[in-house]
Amino acid sequence: MSFESAMARLGGTSLSVGSIEACSIAKGETLADTVRVVSGYADAIVIRHPKEGAARLAAEFATVPVINAGDGAGQHPSQTLLDLYTIRQSMAIDKIDVALIGDLRYGRTAHSLASALSLYNARLHTLSPKGLELPVTLAAELCDKGMDIVEHDNINEIIRDVDVLYVTRIQRERFPDSASYFNVASNYRITPELLCGARSHLIILHPLPRIDEIDPRVDELPYARYFEQSRNGVPVRMAMLMEVMQ
Amino acid sequence: MKNSDAAENEGLLVRRIKNGTVIDHIDGGEALNVVKILGITGTTHEALSIATNVPSRNMGCKDIVKLTNRELSKEEVDRIALISPRATINIIRNYKVCEKKGVEIPKIIEGLVKCPNPGCISNTNEPIRSKFEVLPKGLHCHYCDWVITRDLTSHII
User: Fold this and answer.
1) Cβ atoms A99, A157 nearer than 8 A
2) Total domain count, chain B
3) What residue spans define the domains of chain A?
4) For residues B53, B57, B58 and B59, what is the CA-based torsion angle, rounded to 10 degrees?
5) How many other C-beta atoms can be found within 10 angstroms of the C-beta atom of residue B73?
6) Residues ≥6 apart with Cβ < 8 Å to B57
7) What is the pTM of this model?
8) What CATH code would you report for A77-230?
9) Do B62 and B123 lie in a common domain?
10) Do B121 and A53 touch (CB under 8 A)?
C-alpha cells in the first residue's frame, strides 16, 4: 500500500495484481511471463513474492525497472532504505549499536538492514529464538565485511547497550503449537519496564505489522519511532520510484 | 615377461582410444562425479572407459575417464575443475594427443547445480537454469544468495 500511496503522490497511477488467486499466476503462469506482460502495461514493477530471488528473476525478464518489495525470506531493500532514513533522523548512523530482535532467520527486513549497516561500521546485537537465528551464510558474509556481531540470549543484556532496537515479528507458524509460540514470544516482548536504563536517545523500530512484540504502552514513550518509520515509507518510496523511472 | 608386454597389459586397463577425449589426473574417486558433471548417462552410445584409483607418481592415486568419438569443449570440461582442479584434458585424434589442456574454474556455473534452498525461485517452474557464481568460499546462488560451501557433488543436477 505504501508504494501505491507513493505513486499517487507522485501524480501517477498504479495497477495492482492483487491476490494471487485472482490473477494469471493462479492459472499456472510463470513469473517470467507475468513480468513480461506487465512490462507492457507499466513504467516500473514493484514486486513482493514468496520465493527468494523472485525480484532478481523478474528484473531479468522485465523491460521496465523492477523494485524488490520483499522476496520470501530473502531481502527487503526498500524497507531498509526507510529504516536507515528513520535512524538518520535521530542520529548519525556510523558506528552505532543496533539490536535485531525476533525472527532473524526468515525476517527479510532484518537481513537487508544488517547488510546495509555493515557499510556504516555499526555493531550488531542479535537476539532470536533457537532455530530462528540470522542465517549462517549472511552472518559469515557480514563478518567478512568486518562487522562486529554480538549474539545474546537475554533481552535484558541488550537494552542498555544499544542505540537502535529493531524488533521483528515472530511468526506463529514457525512453532508446532500456540503454547510454544506464546512461551517463546513472551521472552521477546518489549515493555516500558524493560526499557528502564535504556540510553536516552534509544529509538525502537519495527517494520510492522506488530502483534505482541511491543507492548502498546511503549507507543507513548519517546523511544517509539515505528509509526514515524512507517510514514517515512512514503517519501522514501517516492524517491525510489522517481529514481528508477527517470 | 618383457617390459613391452607389461606395458601392453597395463594398457588394457585404460586402453588407448582412436578418437575422443581423455580426462586424466582426476582426483582419486571422483571419476563418477566427473561423468555426472559432463552429463554422460547410461544412454550414451559412445564407448566410455573409467579407471579409478590408478597409481600415480604425483597424485598418489588418480582416476581417468576416456570417451570415444567425442571432443569435449572447454566450457564442458571446465566444470570438472569444481571437483578436480588438477584434471587434464587430452583431445585424441587418430591415437595422437592433438590438444592437451588443464581445467580452469569458471566464474559462473549454469544449469549444473541445484540450489539447496527450497525457497529459491530457481527451484520452481520458471524458464531459467540455476546459476551460481564461483567464489573462494563456495558457490553463490545468483537468485537467492545461498552459498554452497561443502558437499558440492550432492547438489549436481
Assistant:
1) no
2) 2
3) 2-72, 77-230
4) 20
5) 10
6) none
7) 0.82
8) 3.40.50.1370
9) no
10) yes
Q: What is the pLDDT along chain A (246 residues), one digit of tens a residue?
A: 899 999 999 999 999 877 666 677 777 889 999 999 999 999 999 999 999 999 999 999 999 999 999 999 999 999 999 999 999 999 999 999 999 999 999 999 999 999 999 999 999 999 998 888 999 889 999 999 999 999 999 888 899 999 999 999 888 777 778 887 887 778 889 999 999 999 999 999 999 999 889 999 999 999 999 999 999 999 999 999 999 998
Residues in chain B within 8 Å Cβ distance of A25: none
User: Has domain A2-72 been given CATH number 3.40.50.1370?
Assistant: yes
Q: CB distance from B118 to chain A under 8 Å?
A: no
Q: CA angle, A226 as apex, A220 and A227 as ends, to 5°?
A: 80
Residues B119 and A50: their CA atoms lie apart, in Å, by: 8
Look-up: residue for cell 546459476? B131
Domain assignment of residue B126, given as a range: 108-155
The span from the CA of A54 to the CA of A61, in Å, is 11
For chain A, the residues whose C-beta falls within 8 A of a C-beta of chain B are 30-32, 49-54, 56-57, 60, 71-75, 137-138, 140-141, 144
**CB contacts < 8 A (A, B):** 60
Same domain, B27 and B90: yes
